[in-house]
Amino acid sequence: MSTYQDRLNALRDQLARDRLDGFVVPLTDEHMSEYVGAYAQRLAWLTGFQGSAGSAVVLPEQAAIFVDGRYTLQVREQVDGALWQYESVPQTSIADWLKAHAPAGGRIGYDPWLHTRAWVEQASAALADKGATLVAVDTNPIDLVWPDRPAPSDARLVVHDDRYAGQSAAEKRQAMADWLVGKKADAAVLSALDSIAWTFNIRGKDVDRTPVALAYAIVHADATADLYVAPEKMDEAVAKHLGNAVRVHDRAAFADALAGFAGKSVVADPERAVAAIFEALDSGGATILPLRDPAILPKAIKNPIEIAGHKSAQARDGAALSRFLHWVSVEAPKGGQTEMTAADRLEAFRKETGLLEDLSFDTISGAGPNGAVVHYRVEEKTNRPIETGTLYLVDSGGQYRDGTTDVTRTLAIGAPSREMQERFTLVLKGHVALARAVFPVGTRGGQLDILARQFLWAHGLDYAHGTGHGVGSFLSVHEGPQRIATFGGGDEPLQAGMILSNEPGYYKTGEYGIRIENLVLVEDRAIAGAEKPMLGFETLTFAPIDRHLIALDLLSPDERAWVNAYHAKVLSVVGPQLDDDAKAWLESACAPL
What we know:
It contains 19 helices and 28 strands. The chain starts with a helix and ends with a helix. The radius of gyration is 25 Å and the shape is globular.
């Protein structure tokens, strides 16, 4: 099927054969993952949308694609508006749209392995108002019409050594078992891929940019576990690492195993376990305890070994990024460089460390107006030259055994305009305010979000994404439950040991984008005379912030002092790793304001 019109027509024909009046297409897999393997890229195959978050609904005469503010521009560039209506979330939900557009008495299909139970209940209630019903399908109809759909990865599992993990898998299972006993539960279902990787100290290569393996697990109150993974992914080293307390089964046996908990209490996470898991447990007679996956919080609170590893990864990554920033300063003014050549060069610098396992996400390399596309993904047809008189935004990261990095820098190519400097400085002021924040234990990320936005708001400006997301330890670059955002999360109390991004931005459609991103560690903060325990942030990322874009007259003395202290730290951490030319450039880039 050569065109997206053909693909949409083929799906509608299949729906007619299945006696369905519509179908919902989320961008996820059966593990509710953000980033998914090629076999699960159904939304991209059907629509052309290349973002990492979105959904679609197909009806006989209408079709709509739903994205959040990060993808408002991107979806219009990649998805044909003649075939698809563009809808923004959270302003419009799929349930609301179905309530307005589904045919009365219609049957709307959904794949129960790709949705949460809460979504099913919400959509069912919305459709009931129209006399329509939500229908679970046994086989996803897209899979039936996708002729060259890739097979799931067969890459082998690898052991994540305790010297990186800081805690053995047996210790983690015992802690979960103790938690289960406290909850009077017999077992917990783990379906989130990063939870399974963390719990068993294993990693994989089944999802680009995220070192996880396709698997399910059930951890029991006696600290034993069942791991469901394709047999070809196992080897003797992994089997020995898992030990006798972990029983290994074919991944295909997982669904049937859920029927074996009659009379027992089983924890299943309503946010991360799909509806099909709940239905299988229900039908098997289990008592379901809808509680959060017991790996989520311990995974987010990094132990001292993970923190030390992350700092090592950041120092290494900061040197690679600084070499790249020096390269841009030399090569971009000559002309001839593009978004793609720059992204390739940055990856090469990271590979030269000899320790890069993968990028942590596809590099966002946005020149000029492409920088205003928040989650821009460069490809041949959008590839722009990096030109003098423009801004260049590069958001990138690396996966190393000892840590996961994520950093954004915005660079002036040639002399920036006063407007560029002013708006960059407003973003910088917000970044500094958040970096310097001190707050009581129990504070939620959402309570801090305004610190980063306040200066933009004062000028009638804003950005349509969260300010901070959690980051894993050689795992997902987007990790919950912690976030700094006023929408879509941010309710989790921040705790010492959590790692988050600090990334305010500003985007002028059709002209340029600005973002400054460092990773920060939540740490205990001792304050003389304090009447309650307090927390603050330690900045972990080390790379210079473009001095040419800073409007000094807009910085307070305290803000200027923070930038100078940050750059002094960058120089001390990164400088010794650079050769003469790059080191001389870094010394200039980090000179006091």
